[in-house]
Protein backbone atom coordinates (compact mmCIF):
# COMPACT_ATOMS: atom_id res chain seq x y z
CA UNK A 1 0.00 0.00 0.00
CA UNK A 2 1.41 3.35 -1.02
CA UNK A 3 1.74 6.30 1.31
CA UNK A 4 -1.07 8.11 -0.56
CA UNK A 5 -3.37 5.11 -0.25
CA UNK A 6 -2.61 4.75 3.44
CA UNK A 7 -3.38 8.44 3.92
CA UNK A 8 -6.77 8.08 2.14
CA UNK A 9 -7.65 5.02 4.19
CA UNK A 10 -6.64 6.84 7.34
CA UNK A 11 -8.78 9.87 6.48
CA UNK A 12 -11.74 7.65 5.59
CA UNK A 13 -11.33 5.77 8.83
CA UNK A 14 -11.22 9.02 10.77
CA UNK A 15 -14.41 10.23 9.08
CA UNK A 16 -16.21 6.96 9.78
CA UNK A 17 -14.96 7.00 13.35
CA UNK A 18 -16.08 10.58 13.89
CA UNK A 19 -19.48 9.84 12.37
CA UNK A 20 -19.89 6.76 14.54
CA UNK A 21 -18.88 8.74 17.60
CA UNK A 22 -21.42 11.42 16.68
CA UNK A 23 -24.21 8.88 16.28
CA UNK A 24 -23.24 7.25 19.55
CA UNK A 25 -23.20 10.63 21.31
CA UNK A 26 -26.67 11.49 19.99
CA UNK A 27 -27.97 8.06 21.01
CA UNK A 28 -26.56 8.40 24.50
CA UNK A 29 -27.96 11.92 24.85
CA UNK A 30 -31.37 10.72 23.69
CA UNK A 31 -31.36 7.80 26.12
CA UNK A 32 -30.20 10.07 28.92
CA UNK A 33 -33.03 12.52 28.21
CA UNK A 34 -35.68 9.79 28.07
CA UNK A 35 -34.23 8.15 31.17
CA UNK A 36 -34.47 11.41 33.14
CA UNK A 37 -38.08 11.88 32.02
CA UNK A 38 -39.00 8.37 33.15
CA UNK A 39 -37.52 8.98 36.62
CA UNK A 40 -39.96 11.82 37.31
CA UNK A 41 -43.03 11.28 39.53
CA UNK A 42 -45.66 9.47 37.46
CA UNK A 43 -49.27 9.78 38.55
CA UNK A 44 -50.41 7.24 35.94
CA UNK A 45 -47.83 4.56 36.71
CA UNK A 46 -50.44 2.14 38.09
CA UNK A 47 -53.16 2.95 35.53
CA UNK A 48 -54.22 -0.28 33.75
CA UNK A 49 -53.81 1.00 30.20
CA UNK A 50 -54.84 -1.59 27.63
CA UNK A 51 -56.51 -3.80 30.23
CA UNK A 52 -60.13 -2.62 29.90
CA UNK A 53 -61.78 -5.43 27.99
CA UNK A 54 -65.32 -5.44 26.70
CA UNK A 55 -67.41 -8.15 25.11
CA UNK A 56 -65.62 -8.80 21.85
CA UNK A 57 -67.49 -8.90 18.56
CA UNK A 58 -66.58 -8.89 14.88
CA UNK A 59 -68.28 -6.86 12.18
CA UNK A 60 -67.75 -8.02 8.61
CA UNK A 61 -68.37 -5.01 6.40
CA UNK A 62 -70.15 -5.02 3.05
CA UNK A 63 -66.76 -5.05 1.30
CA UNK A 64 -65.54 -8.02 3.35
CA UNK A 65 -63.28 -6.39 5.96
CA UNK A 66 -63.43 -7.75 9.52
CA UNK A 67 -63.61 -5.02 12.16
CA UNK A 68 -62.85 -5.53 15.85
CA UNK A 69 -65.64 -4.31 18.15
CA UNK A 70 -65.93 -4.22 21.95
CA UNK A 71 -69.16 -3.65 23.89
CA UNK A 72 -69.14 -2.48 27.52
CA UNK A 73 -71.77 -1.62 30.07
CA UNK A 74 -75.32 -2.82 30.70
CA UNK A 75 -77.12 -4.18 27.62
CA UNK A 76 -80.41 -2.73 28.80
CA UNK A 77 -79.11 0.85 29.10
CA UNK A 78 -81.42 3.29 27.27
CA UNK A 79 -78.54 4.94 25.40
CA UNK A 80 -75.43 3.63 23.65
CA UNK A 81 -72.26 5.73 23.37
CA UNK A 82 -70.25 4.87 20.25
CA UNK A 83 -66.54 5.75 20.25
CA UNK A 84 -64.65 6.32 16.98
CA UNK A 85 -60.88 6.68 17.46
CA UNK A 86 -58.35 8.69 15.50
CA UNK A 87 -55.64 8.19 12.89
CA UNK A 88 -52.87 5.80 13.99
CA UNK A 89 -54.67 4.95 17.24
CA UNK A 90 -57.15 2.25 18.26
CA UNK A 91 -60.12 1.81 20.57
CA UNK A 92 -57.79 1.74 23.60
CA UNK A 93 -57.32 5.50 23.14
CA UNK A 94 -60.73 5.88 24.82
CA UNK A 95 -59.39 4.29 28.02
CA UNK A 96 -60.49 7.02 30.44
CA UNK A 97 -63.87 7.52 28.80
CA UNK A 98 -64.70 3.82 28.81
CA UNK A 99 -63.57 3.54 32.43
CA UNK A 100 -65.77 6.48 33.42
CA UNK A 101 -68.95 5.64 31.52
CA UNK A 102 -69.07 1.84 31.38
CA UNK A 103 -70.94 1.38 34.67
CA UNK A 104 -73.94 3.46 33.65
CA UNK A 105 -74.01 3.46 29.84
CA UNK A 106 -73.81 0.91 27.07
CA UNK A 107 -70.59 1.52 25.15
CA UNK A 108 -69.57 0.39 21.68
CA UNK A 109 -65.93 0.98 20.70
CA UNK A 110 -64.35 -0.23 17.49
CA UNK A 111 -61.04 -0.32 15.67
CA UNK A 112 -61.29 1.48 12.35
CA UNK A 113 -60.30 -0.58 9.33
CA UNK A 114 -56.56 -1.25 9.12
CA UNK A 115 -56.13 -0.06 12.74
CA UNK A 116 -55.76 -1.96 15.98
CA UNK A 117 -57.18 -5.48 15.76
CA UNK A 118 -59.26 -4.82 12.67
CA UNK A 119 -58.32 -6.34 9.34
CA UNK A 120 -56.14 -4.52 6.83
CA UNK A 121 -58.08 -3.08 3.92
CA UNK A 122 -56.86 -2.51 0.39
CA UNK A 123 -55.33 0.92 -0.21
CA UNK A 124 -58.18 1.94 -2.50
CA UNK A 125 -60.67 1.22 0.30
CA UNK A 126 -59.00 3.44 2.90
CA UNK A 127 -61.11 6.57 2.52
CA UNK A 128 -63.06 8.71 4.97
CA UNK A 129 -66.28 7.95 3.09
CA UNK A 130 -65.66 4.22 3.48
CA UNK A 131 -65.17 4.75 7.22
CA UNK A 132 -68.54 6.49 7.26
CA UNK A 133 -70.08 3.44 5.61
CA UNK A 134 -68.39 1.20 8.20
CA UNK A 135 -69.92 3.29 10.98
CA UNK A 136 -73.39 2.99 9.41
CA UNK A 137 -73.01 -0.80 9.29
CA UNK A 138 -71.73 -0.85 12.89
CA UNK A 139 -74.84 1.02 14.06
CA UNK A 140 -77.12 -1.32 12.14
CA UNK A 141 -75.50 -4.41 13.64
CA UNK A 142 -74.64 -3.44 17.22
CA UNK A 143 -76.69 -0.37 18.16
CA UNK A 144 -80.40 -1.24 18.14
CA UNK A 145 -81.56 1.93 19.91
CA UNK A 146 -80.67 5.60 20.30
CA UNK A 147 -77.00 6.55 20.53
CA UNK A 148 -74.46 9.32 20.92
CA UNK A 149 -71.48 9.34 18.55
CA UNK A 150 -68.07 10.42 19.86
CA UNK A 151 -65.21 10.90 17.39
CA UNK A 152 -61.60 11.99 17.83
CA UNK A 153 -59.49 13.20 14.90
CA UNK A 154 -60.19 10.83 11.98
CA UNK A 155 -63.02 9.35 14.05
CA UNK A 156 -64.71 12.75 14.02
CA UNK A 157 -64.26 12.88 10.25
CA UNK A 158 -65.89 9.44 10.09
CA UNK A 159 -68.98 10.89 11.80
CA UNK A 160 -69.02 13.74 9.28
CA UNK A 161 -68.84 11.24 6.43
CA UNK A 162 -71.80 9.39 7.94
CA UNK A 163 -73.72 12.68 8.12
CA UNK A 164 -72.96 13.30 4.47
CA UNK A 165 -74.01 9.82 3.34
CA UNK A 166 -76.79 8.95 5.83
CA UNK A 167 -78.32 12.23 7.06
CA UNK A 168 -81.62 10.54 7.94
CA UNK A 169 -79.96 8.83 10.93
CA UNK A 170 -79.36 12.09 12.78
CA UNK A 171 -82.20 13.04 15.07
CA UNK A 172 -83.89 9.67 14.83
CA UNK A 173 -81.22 7.12 15.77
CA UNK A 174 -78.32 9.45 16.53
CA UNK A 175 -79.29 11.75 19.40
CA UNK A 176 -76.01 13.58 20.04
CA UNK A 177 -72.49 14.04 18.66
CA UNK A 178 -69.10 14.93 20.17
CA UNK A 179 -66.35 16.07 17.79
CA UNK A 180 -62.99 16.03 19.57
CA UNK A 181 -59.70 17.31 18.13
CA UNK A 182 -60.96 16.99 14.58
CA UNK A 183 -61.54 18.98 11.39
CA UNK A 184 -64.09 19.42 8.61
CA UNK A 185 -61.37 19.97 6.01
CA UNK A 186 -58.38 21.99 4.75
CA UNK A 187 -55.86 19.87 6.63
CA UNK A 188 -53.43 20.44 3.77
CA UNK A 189 -53.24 24.05 4.93
CA UNK A 190 -52.29 23.27 8.55
CA UNK A 191 -48.93 24.91 9.37
CA UNK A 192 -47.94 22.35 12.05
CA UNK A 193 -46.51 25.27 14.01
CA UNK A 194 -43.98 26.01 11.26
CA UNK A 195 -43.36 29.32 9.48
CA UNK A 196 -45.74 29.72 6.53
CA UNK A 197 -43.06 29.28 3.86
CA UNK A 198 -41.62 26.17 5.50
CA UNK A 199 -45.12 24.74 5.97
CA UNK A 200 -45.87 25.16 2.25
CA UNK A 201 -42.69 23.29 1.37
CA UNK A 202 -43.54 20.49 3.83
CA UNK A 203 -47.04 20.06 2.40
CA UNK A 204 -45.65 20.08 -1.13
CA UNK A 205 -43.17 17.27 -0.54
CA UNK A 206 -45.16 15.31 2.08
CA UNK A 207 -47.46 13.33 -0.28
CA UNK A 208 -44.55 11.96 -2.29
CA UNK A 209 -42.48 11.28 0.81
CA UNK A 210 -45.33 9.48 2.60
CA UNK A 211 -46.06 7.43 -0.52
CA UNK A 212 -42.41 6.43 -0.81
CA UNK A 213 -42.26 5.43 2.85
CA UNK A 214 -45.42 3.38 2.37
CA UNK A 215 -43.80 1.42 -0.46
CA UNK A 216 -40.95 0.59 1.91
CA UNK A 217 -43.24 0.00 4.85
CA UNK A 218 -41.66 -3.16 6.24
CA UNK A 219 -38.20 -1.59 6.37
CA UNK A 220 -39.52 1.66 7.84
CA UNK A 221 -41.43 -0.26 10.52
CA UNK A 222 -38.25 -2.01 11.64
CA UNK A 223 -36.59 1.39 11.94
CA UNK A 224 -39.55 2.78 13.90
CA UNK A 225 -39.34 -0.05 16.41
CA UNK A 226 -35.60 0.50 16.82
CA UNK A 227 -36.12 4.22 17.39
CA UNK A 228 -38.66 3.99 20.20
CA UNK A 229 -36.86 6.57 22.37
CA UNK A 230 -37.06 9.16 19.60
CA UNK A 231 -40.73 8.27 19.04
CA UNK A 232 -41.33 8.74 22.77
CA UNK A 233 -39.91 12.26 22.66
CA UNK A 234 -41.87 13.19 19.51
CA UNK A 235 -45.14 11.85 20.93
CA UNK A 236 -44.55 13.67 24.20
CA UNK A 237 -43.94 16.98 22.44
CA UNK A 238 -46.53 16.82 19.63
CA UNK A 239 -49.32 14.82 21.27
CA UNK A 240 -49.43 16.60 24.62
CA UNK A 241 -49.67 20.32 25.34
CA UNK A 242 -48.13 20.17 28.81
CA UNK A 243 -45.26 17.98 27.70
CA UNK A 244 -43.08 18.73 30.73
CA UNK A 245 -45.61 17.35 33.19
CA UNK A 246 -47.35 14.60 31.22
CA UNK A 247 -47.07 11.08 32.63
CA UNK A 248 -44.28 9.03 30.97
CA UNK A 249 -46.52 5.97 31.27
CA UNK A 250 -49.26 7.80 29.36
CA UNK A 251 -46.79 8.86 26.65
CA UNK A 252 -45.61 5.25 26.34
CA UNK A 253 -49.21 4.10 25.99
CA UNK A 254 -49.94 6.59 23.20
CA UNK A 255 -46.64 5.96 21.42
CA UNK A 256 -47.23 2.20 21.48
CA UNK A 257 -50.57 2.63 19.70
CA UNK A 258 -49.00 4.88 17.08
CA UNK A 259 -46.03 2.58 16.53
CA UNK A 260 -48.37 -0.41 16.13
CA UNK A 261 -49.94 1.25 13.09
CA UNK A 262 -48.04 -0.02 10.01
CA UNK A 263 -46.35 2.61 7.85
CA UNK A 264 -48.31 1.31 4.85
CA UNK A 265 -51.56 2.11 6.66
CA UNK A 266 -50.33 5.60 7.55
CA UNK A 267 -49.50 6.14 3.87
CA UNK A 268 -52.80 4.66 2.67
CA UNK A 269 -54.94 7.04 4.75
CA UNK A 270 -52.81 10.17 4.29
CA UNK A 271 -54.39 11.28 0.97
CA UNK A 272 -57.87 10.77 2.42
CA UNK A 273 -57.05 13.06 5.34
CA UNK A 274 -55.60 15.75 3.10
CA UNK A 275 -58.64 15.62 0.77
CA UNK A 276 -61.22 15.48 3.56
CA UNK A 277 -63.87 18.20 3.10
CA UNK A 278 -67.18 17.82 4.94
CA UNK A 279 -67.94 21.37 6.05
CA UNK A 280 -71.04 21.38 3.86
CA UNK A 281 -72.35 18.26 5.64
CA UNK A 282 -72.21 19.71 9.15
CA UNK A 283 -75.71 21.18 8.94
CA UNK A 284 -76.98 17.60 9.30
CA UNK A 285 -75.80 17.70 12.93
CA UNK A 286 -77.67 20.91 13.73
CA UNK A 287 -80.85 19.22 15.05
CA UNK A 288 -78.94 17.16 17.64
CA UNK A 289 -76.93 18.35 20.68
CA UNK A 290 -73.29 18.66 19.60
CA UNK A 291 -70.13 19.21 21.62
CA UNK A 292 -66.88 20.35 20.00
CA UNK A 293 -63.63 20.09 21.99
CA UNK A 294 -60.09 21.04 21.02
CA UNK A 295 -56.78 21.66 22.74
CA UNK A 296 -55.45 25.18 22.36
CA UNK A 297 -52.03 23.74 21.47
CA UNK A 298 -53.28 21.20 18.94
CA UNK A 299 -50.91 21.41 15.95
CA UNK A 300 -52.59 18.68 13.92
CA UNK A 301 -56.22 19.86 14.03
CA UNK A 302 -55.79 23.45 15.27
CA UNK A 303 -58.45 25.41 17.19
CA UNK A 304 -59.33 27.40 14.06
CA UNK A 305 -60.76 24.20 12.58
CA UNK A 306 -63.00 23.65 15.60
CA UNK A 307 -64.09 27.28 15.46
CA UNK A 308 -65.03 26.84 11.81
CA UNK A 309 -67.17 23.82 12.75
CA UNK A 310 -68.78 25.76 15.59
CA UNK A 311 -69.58 28.61 13.17
CA UNK A 312 -71.38 26.10 10.95
CA UNK A 313 -73.21 24.69 13.99
CA UNK A 314 -74.48 27.68 16.01
CA UNK A 315 -76.15 25.45 18.62
CA UNK A 316 -72.98 23.45 19.30
CA UNK A 317 -70.98 23.92 22.51
CA UNK A 318 -67.33 24.71 21.75
CA UNK A 319 -64.72 24.07 24.43
CA UNK A 320 -61.08 25.08 23.93
CA UNK A 321 -58.95 23.36 26.56
CA UNK A 322 -55.82 25.26 27.66
CA UNK A 323 -52.32 23.75 27.62
CA UNK A 324 -53.59 20.74 25.68
CA UNK A 325 -52.64 19.24 22.33
CA UNK A 326 -54.10 16.64 19.98
CA UNK A 327 -54.51 13.67 22.36
CA UNK A 328 -56.99 15.61 24.42
CA UNK A 329 -59.04 12.61 25.60
CA UNK A 330 -55.88 11.16 27.17
CA UNK A 331 -54.29 14.40 28.35
CA UNK A 332 -57.44 15.96 29.88
CA UNK A 333 -59.79 13.04 30.53
CA UNK A 334 -61.69 14.88 33.25
CA UNK A 335 -62.60 17.74 30.93
CA UNK A 336 -63.62 15.37 28.13
CA UNK A 337 -65.60 13.09 30.44
CA UNK A 338 -67.47 16.05 31.94
CA UNK A 339 -68.32 17.31 28.45
CA UNK A 340 -69.60 13.88 27.44
CA UNK A 341 -71.75 13.56 30.56
CA UNK A 342 -73.17 17.03 29.90
CA UNK A 343 -73.88 16.09 26.28
CA UNK A 344 -75.66 12.91 27.37
CA UNK A 345 -77.83 14.94 29.77
CA UNK A 346 -78.88 17.19 26.88
CA UNK A 347 -79.97 14.25 24.75
CA UNK A 348 -83.73 13.76 24.50
CA UNK A 349 -84.76 10.09 24.45
TrEMBL record:
Top-rank taxon: Bacteria
Record's keyword annotation contains Hydrolase: yes
Molecular function (Gene Ontology), one example: hydrolase activity
AB hydrolase-1 domain residues: 80-333
InterPro entries: AB_hydrolase_1, AB_hydrolase_fold, Carboxylesterase_BioH, Epox_hydrolase-like
Key words of the record: Hydrolase
Name of the protein in question: Alpha/beta hydrolase
Amino acid sequence: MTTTTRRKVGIAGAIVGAASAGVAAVTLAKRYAVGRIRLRPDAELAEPFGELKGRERVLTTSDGVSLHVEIDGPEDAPLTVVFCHGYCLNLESWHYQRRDLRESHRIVAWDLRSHGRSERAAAEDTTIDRLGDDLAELLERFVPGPCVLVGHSMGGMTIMALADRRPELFGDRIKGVALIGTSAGKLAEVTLGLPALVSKVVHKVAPGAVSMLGRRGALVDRTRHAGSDIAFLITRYVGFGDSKNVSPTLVDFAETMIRATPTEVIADFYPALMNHDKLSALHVLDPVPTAILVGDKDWLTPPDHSRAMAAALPKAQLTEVPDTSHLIQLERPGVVNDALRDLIKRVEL
